[in-house]
Design a protein that fits this description.
The protein is α+β, with helices and mostly antiparallel strands and 121 residues long. The protein has 5 helices and 2 strands. Strands 1-2 form a two-stranded parallel ribbon.
Length: 121
């Protein structure tokens, strides 16, 4: 998932943060499609809140991101159950510099104002 020139693939043994968003979304989708119900409890309730289809989602992807591969963002977008989701890609955007790409803030503004009940400015 990382370009060869970055040190990140070699650091995974030292990192303890794991982001399981894609796996959780895929598991939830399988349960909804397969329909065996699932268990109950606080973990299940937390997961249900995590994947609420009523929550709008905006995915911003730097296409040169050296930490979160654009393919990962696209997979999250595809797996998202949100009924109102948008994926915006920024050519040349690195992990810490995508915010400086042309159109970044206007993409956020357009998404917010397109929401059913946008916040007052």
């Amino acid at each position: 998932w990382y370009p060869a020139w970055t040190p990140y693939p070699h650091l995974t043994g030292f990192m303890w943060n794991r982001w399981e968003s894609l796996a959780r979304l895929q598991q939830r989708r399988q349960r909804q499609g397969g329909g065996n119900g699932g268990g109950s409890g606080s973990d299940e309730e937390e997961e249900a809140e995590f994947v609420d289809p009523a929550v709008p989602m905006l995915f911003l992807s730097g296409q040169a991101d050296e930490m979160i591969a654009p393919e990962c963002v696209e997979a999250l977008y595809e797996a998202s159950p949100s009924r109102d989701k948008r994926l915006v890609k920024f050519k040349g955007g690195l992990h810490n510099e995508t915010w400086a790409c042309p159109g970044y803030y206007s993409a956020i503004g357009k998404w917010v104002t397109a929401l059913p009940n946008p916040p007052d400015p």
